[in-house]
Amino acid sequence: xxxxxxxxxxxxxxxxxxxxxxxxxxxxxxxxxxxxxxxxxxxxxxxxxxxxxxxxxxxxxxxxxxxxxxxxxxxxxxxxxxxxxxxxxxxxxxxxxxxxxxxxxxxxxxxxxxxxxxxxxxxxxxxxxxxxxxxxxxxxxxxxxxxxxxxxxxxxxxxxxxxxxxxxxxxxxxxxxxxxxxxxxxxxxxxxxxxxxxxxxxxxxxxxxxxxxxxxxxxxxxxxxxxxxxxxxxxxxxxxxxxxxxxxxxxxxxxxxxxxxxxxxxxxxxxxxxxxxxxxxxxxxxxxxxxxxxxxxxxxxxxxxxxxxxxxxxxxxxxxxxxxxxxxxxxxxxxxxxxxxxxxxxxxxxxxxxxxxxxxxxxxxxxxxxxxxxxxx
Length: 377
What we know:
By secondary structure, the protein is an alpha+beta fold.
């Protein structure tokens, strides 16, 4: 059954939580339980040898304390070293391989099914991501990054016929290499300028020029240094004459007349409402910390460089760009999306977060009326 919204009677494409819960119960619940059992089996198999070795260590320590000389205690760390060298490393490698296979299975069997439920026109490519060209075109951050990557690329049409809107999105990370010298010692690390979801969609008005909309900062933030001087030259700040909007966002444009053509009073209101809805950010920091501890180092330009894993934002930040008939939306969350973890339970809560992230694409079309074609684009 089609849902409609607004005075234009446009079809609404985003899914309600009730629809998702019904879908999970009917289509995902059984598969999720099977994979959860597999996850628990992997963890138990991985931990069992260490628990056995720990119990043997305690028994050996007690026996040595009462019946043998103290020098025999040296055999205990030797036994641990022997186990790690001849058994532990191979078991850890096998465990990591099985963990990667489980993550792949979750994406192929469960996430792909969730994406098809959200929109049957969507195509999902787990190892792809939005090209860096689009990130540069958005003119939100500098175009020179030492690392740009991502995954979980989704693309397709929302709607049908002349009213369909083409969009694509993925998780994206853009890092800069930071160098710090102190007392002749040089330290380098990767620092995320942006980490979150990046959406690109056809806009419902044909126009030329560039307009960016970013959250208003009370004082320059640390990542403001990533903006290019070129952008400062071509983009001029403007006021929209909407006190609440100007208090929330900073608008910059190459052409004020065309910017006002885009930012009608009704559209500014919808933009404010949409950005407000996207602010909630359910942190997966608990699992990120464990994953980061295991990854440790990241490859960059042929060198091993440590990466800083900052805390996820309590409130996500929304950035918008309008360029030559396209709309770019960046949701800066400072955390990963669509990623499972061996320590995270595979259940409805996990997939509800996936549903909310995918649903943002449909809300983008619904709430901003991107499939409204009264301007004859």
